[in-house]
Amino acid sequence: MKKVLHIVGARPNFMKVAPIHRAISERGSLTQTLVHTGQHYDVKMSDVFFTDLGMPAPDIHLGIGSGSHAEQTAKVMIELEKVFTSEKPDLVSVVGDVNSTLAAALVAAKMGIPISHVEAGLRSFDRTMPEEINRVLTDRISDLLLTPSADADANLIREGLEPARIRLVGNVMIDSLLAAREKALRLPTLSELGLEPRGYAVCTLHRASNVDDAKVFSGLLSALSHVASRLPVVFPVHPRTRKRISELGLAATLERTPGLRLVDPMGYLEFLALTSQARLAFTDSGGLQEETTVLGIPCLTVRENTERPITVDIGTNVVVGTDPVRIQQTADRILDGHGKKGRIPDRWDGRSGERIAQEYEQFLGVGNTPRLAAV
Ligand code: UD1
Q1: N or C, fewer C-beta in 10 Å, the chain?
Q2: Which residues are known catalytic residues?
């Protein structure tokens, strides 16, 4: 049987690979190997997601850990070359835009192994973002470009990539969200935190450009403190952000800010329970912009740009930048009842994993089912 090898490395990868892995396993026409690079390694940044998403433990764990971009990417490459040599995959499937994604694509390309990039074509057009470099380069060397939305197709075509390699399969991360939503809503997350549905805001911040720059980070925290004076703001803190808070000596002040609730990173289900019942969200994450659009929750993206413009064009997202005054004013407008009402983009319907499995069968010349993507 032909073999697909999946790469996961960091937190946002797990909810994208789970539905693809499940669809391939249900169809039974391909074998698959799941490789975790170990880019993220804390239990709360990794292990809990496998349990929450019902994904099997990785077949191979590389234990790479943290480091500079060059160190982390290079270490993943060195170890993956050995894995690809012994596993001999027919297709390497990578998702998203983290360092592990690009590292895997580079190794596969040099070894002549076909590559599929899931979430291809997203562009922030901001090359100061490490993720943008990872996206552009991974797409350039991938054989199958599986996109979440039509704007991504247009970006790839503009860059001169062959239309024959591009397939609009929809947003696979939304498969995970729709599959888990009911279970998440049964969790006691809100009552444990003393929150009422729609009575609080949720915040995530971890982008280097926001948390590693003291001036930007302090401005964001002051805007959050303002919002926290109107309703509780729950802020699950990413390890990078936690480190910056402590380096800047801000922990005591933040702990004392009324309404601001700093908590540890949450598992997938717990966080979904929190976001799906929030009044609004503040984030610099990519995934949360999309999740809030599907959940119908107003989202303020505290960045100067987004690689996911569809969440702004038809969803609930507003790219608000990092100016504290503008963030406060926009949040106030939403809290005063003027939040955006969005709709859900095409093919964000819970069936993307199935479409991807069918694309892989067709690419590898196995199976004989009509493609959902063409319907
Ligand atoms: C990475 C991705 C980013 C993604 C984010 C989601 C890249 C370039 N960045 O950023 O696109 O949005 O994951 O979380 O790949 N750390 C821990 N425990 C962990 C993981 C990280 O303590 O399990 C700390 C370490 O101090 C590490 C820092 O967080 O140095 C940053 O981790 P890293 O993987 O380099 O990047 P992220 O900021 O997590």
Answers
A1: C
A2: 206
How confident is the model over 355-365, as a mean pLDDT? 98
The atom number, within ligand 1, closest to the CA of 207 reads 38
pLDDT of residue 375: 40
From the CA of 45, give the closest atom in ligand 1. 23
> Given 3.30.420.40, 3.30.420.240, 3.40.50.2000, 3.90.180.10, which CATH number is that of 3-171+348-364?
3.40.50.2000
10 lines ligand 1 (CB under 6 A): yes
Residue identified by tokens 């998403």 is 53
Give me the helices (H) in 112-161, please: 130-140, 150-158
130 lines ligand 1 (CB under 6 A): yes
Are 52 and 268 within 8 A, CB to CB? yes
Q: How much distance in Å is there from the Cα of 240 to the middle of ligand 1?
A: 7
Q: How far apart are CA 96 and CA 179, in angstroms?
A: 20
**Best substitution site from 37, 45, 64, 66 to test ligand 1's pocket, by max atoms within 8 Å of Cβ?**
66
Give me the residue spans of the domains in the chain: 3-171+348-364, 179-338
Mutual angle of helices 352-364 and 11-27, in 10-degree steps: 60
Find all residues with CB under 8 Å of 144, minimum gap 6, and list them: 91, 114, 115, 116, 117, 165, 167, 359, 360, 363
Share of the chain above pLDDT 90, in %: 95
CATH of segment(s) 179-338 = 3.40.50.2000
**What is the DSSP pairing of strand 60-61 with strand 31-36?**
parallel
Ligand 1 atom with least separation from CA of 41: 23
Tokens linked to 179: 């599959």
| 179-338 and 3-171+348-364 share a CATH fold | yes
Average per-residue pLDDT for the chain = 96
Residue 11 Cβ contacting ligand 1 at under 6 Å: yes
DSSP for 270-315 reads HHHHHHHT-SEEEE--SHHHHHHHHHT--EEE-SS--S-THHHHTS
Mutation to probe ligand 1, out of 8, 36, 40 (largest number of atoms < 8 A from CB): 40
- pLDDT value of residue 374: 45
